[in-house]
Amino acid sequence: xxxxxxxxxxxxxxxxxxxxxxxxxxxxxxxxxxxxxxxxxxxxxxxxxxxxxxxxxxxxxxxxxxxxxxxxxxxxxxxxxxxxxxxxxxxxxxxxxxxxxxxxxxxxxxxxxxxxxxxxxxxxxxxxxxxxxxxxxxxxxxxxxxxxxxxxxxxxxxxxxxxxxxxxxxxxxxxxxxxxxxxxxxxxxxxxxxxxxxxxxxxxxxxxxxxxx
Length: 213
Known about the structure:
The chain is mostly beta strands and 213 residues long. The chain is 13% helix and 41% strand. The protein has helices at residues 19-22, 26-41, 45-52, and strands at 64-65, 71-84, 89-102, 107-120, 125-129, 139-143, 148-151, 158-164, 169-171, 178-180, 188-193, 199-204, 209-212. The chain is elongated and about 70 Å long. The relative contact order is 0.11.
């Protein structure tokens, strides 16, 4: 029979009891109360260990739509869609798929991203893909009027096609990029980032485009 490792129930003192009340973290508060109850009940250490370690954790983040039409959301996983007719969109610490659309307003996205679709009729776009981001299908980032700034992690692979109606385009890591408009003001860059892969399409009607690591 495999050995059973038992976890001792922590002994609580008057200084540890209030911790859950003021910790500011709902999970920590709940677990501190569980520790109190386990000690009072004399819970078996093996059962205590099983009950104290969650098998599954679900995190939910609700987008907050302000009176001026802007949308702010943070720490969300899975698939996220955000749309506003007039207002900025800020999405922080996303994990997975992001689809953001504004008729008039800047868009700011960061996190570990798998699929990105960002559109604004008028406004700048900033996307910061954290380490672990991996293109599972095409990424498309467009603005009718504004600058596009995309930061990707080292080792990121993509087939890049970036163009602007008026402005410069710069993409780190494409030594053999095709360009139009001259070296000092390139309006289009196309080529492979890393070993290539899914399409990374960036379009601006009027504004520079920068892709950096």
